[in-house]
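The records we work with from here on pair a chain with its fold. These numbers are not coordinates but entries in a learned vocabulary of local backbone shapes. To see the layout at work, look at the sequence and tokens printed below.

. . .
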Amino acid sequence: MTKTVWYRVALVVVAVILIGVLYGLMQQEQIANPFLVGSLGLILGVDLALLLANLWPVHHSRKP
């Protein structure tokens, strides 16, 4: 993997850890804000989608 791919993977891992910490704090404090939970889920989903898009091998179609 190239350096930029490792950099993107590290960013996604940091984002997932931060979301996990925030979610844990919300559970501990019994904060049930649906907008906050929804936005965290959306951010996590987008991050994972970008990670999969970056790691997925690209197959270039040959045009005649």
Summary: The two ends are 30 Å apart (CA to CA). The chain has a mean pLDDT of 73. The chain has two helices and no strands. Residues 1-26 form one domain.
